[in-house]
């Protein structure tokens, strides 16, 4: 692993910075030093429109005293620069007792995240080739494809984390992602399709899937939506295919299981530990240790080991996701979910790789046993009001099921419901598991996540569409403004 910013400071210097941060008292202090190297390539209008490369470096220092937190950050990562930031933070959160930091030591990493082919060892020309290959393939597939956008990005993030409890972590995180977005038109009708691939991997990302294959999926989806019929509206059974990824679990319950929202009284799951909150068929897990996934971490952004946390087990609420600050309020350990977008942000509880565990049923049998309803094969973005659990999702690819058969594709569908209610209505769970990637937004911060689910059936869910409702043609769906509050967590699909 490449040595990072702390090499000029060493442990003694970092320990001195921590002592400065605690000079006016406090319960805890930490240092987060970061250096990021980013590359981005974008292709639009049949040509490379941008090639961006850059670095960003800085450090954040936090002091916690009781319920008060002070945070200061700086681009000056010299000893003097960090000492100045530490003094600023020390004045922001004063405690009754001045504590010295423990001797720094490094915990063992719980997962190996080494990559096969580092992005900084691959020439930019090779990356451009992959982007152009996807663009060319997409444009030759059908005359109705009018626009194609292809993006590739990679990041190498080096961090050093030290705190007054004696944790010292030097870590390197590498992620890559590839996105294709296709626009198809037939007369005045315009439809889009997208596909994304990404993970905690290097340039070997294309060994999983070729760029042409990603382009093919995006184009096929856009063309399918041209032929699709308007989605019906009303209440009906919904089968969520594994290919849809776990947007449902991420939005329907994931944010509500983050401890800061629970402690602020902003979660529908507050006070329900040990209670049944979902169908006995539903087990929800947040696992930061799954090798290669987009939300996988060796350590979170506070130096706590990445962990596998069972949040809901066979329908019973078992655990919330904690960072150090929320954990300290309950005199317990962090679950390894303290994450931040950069050194300019303090950490908060965030998801990593969140999933509904696979069951034991044949996925095809679930569809066959559904008399009528909607099959969702690809989700768009979504939002949730964590206070009451209400959510709304876009459906990027959906189909009508009738008498156990997939009849035809539909477009323009949305899913509206309440997280706890929906999870209680899950009555079939398949043995497959499909992942999706995204950037999760919360408190103005975006972090990489993945989510997953098996094929599963929800007994009834409100589907919004423009094609009428077979069971209740005049049913009026709730307005978006009545479902969501400002600043609600949301996931942006890549």
Automatic annotation (TrEMBL):
Keyword tags: Hydrolase, Metalloprotease, Protease
InterPro entries registered for this protein in UniProt: Metalloprtase-TldD/E_C (IPR045569), Metalloprtase-TldD/E_cen_dom (IPR045570), Metalloprtase-TldD/E_N (IPR002510), Peptidase_U62_metallo (IPR051463), TldD (IPR025502), TldD/PmbA_N (IPR035068), TldD/PmbA_sf (IPR036059)
Ranges of residues in domain Metalloprotease TldD/E central: 119-226
Domain Metalloprotease TldD/E N-terminal intervals: 29-90
A GO molecular function held by the record: metallopeptidase activity
GO process annotations (BP): proteolysis
Tree of life domain: Bacteria
GO CC annotations, alphabetized: cytosol
Gene3D superfamilies according to UniProt: PmbA/TldD superfamily (3.30.2290.10)
Transmembrane segments: none
Pfam family, one: PmbA_TldD_2nd
Family membership noted in the UniProt record: Belongs to the peptidase U62 family.
Identification of the protein by name: TldD/PmbA family protein
